[in-house]
Design goal:
- The chain is α+β, with helices and mostly antiparallel strands and 84 residues long.
- Helices cover 25% and strands 33% of the residues.
- A hairpin with a 6-residue loop joins strand 2 and strand 3 (39-44).
- The longest helix has 12 residues, at 48-59.
- Pathway: Amino-acid biosynthesis.
- Residues 5-76 form the Transcription regulator AsnC/Lrp ligand binding domain.
Length: 84
């Protein structure tokens, strides 16, 4: 399963949080964004329980992470091919 995690971080922690997120094996992309969130992370897991564990035990424990909002991907269309 895939999920997008929207993260708010403490001021000045954007780069260090991005570096720590990139070390998590389940994370496939980390984006710095402008808007109501600071970072958007794409991650994959085998199931919902594993996803919960990744967010609870890895993402939320990174120094500087203030809050997370998780969206589970229901369906994906890629511009170059069929849906996944």
């Amino acid at each position: 399963m895939e999920a997008l995690v929207f993260i708010n971080v403490d001021v000045g922690y954007e780069d260090s949080v991005m570096e720590e997120l990139a070390k998590i094996p389940e994370v496939s992309a980390v984006h710095f964004v402008y808007g109501p969130y600071d970072l958007v992370v794409k991650l994959t897991s085998d199931d919902a329980e594993t996803l919960r564990s990744i967010i609870r035990d890895k993402v939320r424990k990174i120094n500087g992470v203030r809050s997370t909002t998780t969206l589970i991907v229901a369906k994906t269309y890629l511009r170059s091919g069929p849906p996944h």
